[in-house]
Amino acid sequence: MSHLLEVNHLKTYFKLNDQTVKAVDDVSYYVDEGEIVAVVGESGSGKSVTQYSSIKLIPQSGEIVGGEVLFEGEDLLKYDTNSEEMRQVRGGKIGVIFQEPMTSLNPVLTVGEQIIESVILHKKVSRKQAKKRAMELLTMVGIPDVEERVSYYPFQFSGGMRQRIMIAMAMSCDPKLLIADEATTALDVTTQAQLLELLKDIVKKTNTSIVLVTHNLGIVARYADRIYVMYAGGVVESGNNKDIFSKPKHPYTIGLLNSVPRLDDPKDRKLIPIEGLPPNLANKPTTCSFLERCPFQTEICKSSPAPKLVELESGHYVSCYEEINDKGNLKYEAEFASASEQTLMKREWTSKENNDVVLDVKNLKTYFPFTKGLLNKKIADVKAVDDVSFKVYKGETLGLVGESGCGKTTVARSIMRMYDPTDGEIIFNGTDIGKLPKSKLKDIRKKMSLVFQDPSSSLDPRQKIGNIIGEPLIINKLESSKESYNNRVDKLMRLVGLDPNLKDRVSHEFSGGQRQRIAIARALASNPSLIVCDEAISALDVSIQAQIINLLEELQEKLGLTYLFIAHDLSVVRHIADRIAVMYLGKIVEIGDWKSLYDNPKHPYTKALLSAVPIPDPFVEEQREYQVLKGEVPSLLSRPKGCVFSNRCQIATDACREIEPPLKESEKGHEVACIKV
What are the residues whose beta carbons fall under 8 Å from the beta carbon of 327, sequence distance 6 or more? Predict the structure, then answer.
């Protein structure tokens, strides 16, 4: 049987600083018509480079040094990169949906013009026909008011809408294959669910195939037919969806699954991260690439060349000596059994009940002026945070969740007084800091720390990390001598799992997970009683994410820390938080302890958020009923009258559209802002 796409022994190498980086090293896979194939793995595993190599879309520093890419029986590698034949394939027969639409869309052309250009190029039709096709495509992907918005520029759309436009462009020439490269990674769970359902419908209606490049195992469980697991430039395991999730064979696949928090996890399950880092692809080991990180390694693994992919059972392939050798198989199964028990390891977790309030936010409002014209005349207020109240108790973690633009980060920055609140009270350790002059905030900020989403942009690239971590000690005069200062920096580094001998290095010499550990060490330097984590793990791979979650939990237990934990990943928030507040359009719509909020959500928005989160288990996903939340978060300048969620709510009534419901207690400790509850 011939495949739509068949890649055989593909090799792509890059020349960097006189070194050869083997980014894709002998990769083979196939895609059939009408199926969704997922490619998963950590950053740097070669997922994206493999896909771009297949359509000859790699940087000039890269070279495809071997293999073949058969698309409909034709080897694409025989065509020149910029040849007419290759252009007809790229964007014509094979469409690509990139991760970041703003880097792919031309900012000076309307979205309609960009789609029209693609249709004319590949379909050889008139401009009138191309415009008609553009409007059909924009309608198909759910862009409202197409007649007007076809003339909009990319900046006039939200992130989710821009990604829909990217899908429309990729589909403009009726491709037989779509490559979706982390196409939903930067999106909210609700927008992500909308787009993935859209792609699933496209597959059903047009028999288009999709290669889904992602690190989100929940998405893979819900949508993929088959899976390729990549590590260090090669495929280490492949098979159908259910086989990979129910009986993973490669230790790396097992490690990925153990690292991921799930909505249906026991609260006290301890995440098991994959220790260590992937190998340097410029100096790739001749043995198994996963050897140094593998908990199951044996003498045969250490002394033998890298194992080849071998079919263990129908369609299920693995490259692991412990699985390939019958003799070693028994031992491996025994060790795999113990690894399975490890996933049930319990962390020390108890519900925290006390009345010691660290932070009490009352009726917080943070507005920003909206100006227009040459004179920047104020015409309205952007109500980013509008009458928000909550408490954070000593030693607990309060999770703050919601879609992008709901006001989570504005709340955090208002609490830290990076933004001046418009109204309300921010009572920290008994002092209202909301209206304190900035000259008096130094002593307060010593006890409050903020960990940002992206450590790369929050760490000074010119400073040694020892100086970065120790800076709060100098600013707040917390150490009296150079010796005590150095000892304190060393202690902070050990506390977050970093070697103090590395303190003379700069931040770019560390991995993403290590940089986030540096940021946490700096946050701990002034002995704070409250740490605000603003999307502190969202940019990390699943295994590194698990390491940071475990670290935060261990530090909380050891130091008695209090966290305000902001995230859009509800699985992570469920795992780490004691109580959870759900925000929508500048307001809290529901707040309660983790169990009541996840087991019995009251607000329609909370239910939609939880429904949108996929569980990394295809058997569970088959049984789940989930709803896709329609529409997008409206502009803060045109928020709906009455309940802020009324224009997207499936059960909204006329009363909901007129009356703004207050946050009220529906049961002990569980408050909700909904007329129908």
Answer: none
| Top-confidence residue, 456 or 297 | 297
Q: 95 near 171, Cβ under 8 Å?
A: yes
For residue range 558-607, what is the model confidence (pLDDT) as tens digits?
899 999 999 888 899 999 999 999 999 999 999 999 999 999 999 999 99
pLDDT tens profile 423-464: 999 999 999 999 898 888 888 888 999 998 777 778 888 999
3-class secondary structure for 45-106? CCHHHHHHHHCCCCCCCEEEEEEEEEECCEEHHHCCCCCHHHHHHECCCEEEECCCHHHCCC
Residue located via tokens 């071997």: 66
DSSP 317-329: EE--HHHH-HHHH
Are 215 and 39 within 8 A, CB to CB? no
Distances in Å between the Cα of 315 and the Cα atoms of 45, 243, 256, 330, 589 are 22, 9, 21, 21, 47
Rounded Cα distance, 269 and 7, in Å: 40
Residues 6+ apart with CB under 8 A from 344: 266, 269
Domains of the chain: 102-172 (no CATH), 268-342 (no CATH), 357-461+528-672 (3.40.50.300), 462-527 (no CATH)
The b-or-e profile of 593-630 (16+ CB within 10 A means b, else e) is bbebbbeebbbbbbbbbbbbbbbbbbebbeeeebeebe
- The beta strands (E) that lie in 537-623 are given as 562-566, 579-584, 587-593
What pLDDT digit, counting tens, does each position of 116-150 carry?
998 998 888 899 999 999 998 898 888 888 888 89
User: Is residue 346 classed as helix, strand or coil in its secondary structure?
Assistant: strand
Contact call for residues 115 and 105 (beta carbons, < 8 A): no
pTM (predicted TM-score)? 0.87
- Count of Cβ atoms closer than 10 Å to residue 296 Cβ: 21
Structure tokens, 191: 């927008």
Looking at the DSSP bridge assignments, the partners of residue 63 are 13
φ, ψ of residue 441 to 5 degrees: the values are: -85, -15
Both tokens assigned to 52? 């771009």
For the stretch 197-224, pLDDT in tens is 888 998 888 899 999 999 889 999 999 9
Tokens 């970093």 found at: 498
CB-based burial label for 560 (10 Å; 0-12, 13-18, 19+) = exposed
pLDDT per residue as tens digits for the range 482-491: 999 999 999 9
Do residues 522 and 542 lie in contact, with contact meaning Cβ atoms separated by under 8 Å?
no
463 is written with which tokens?
């400073």
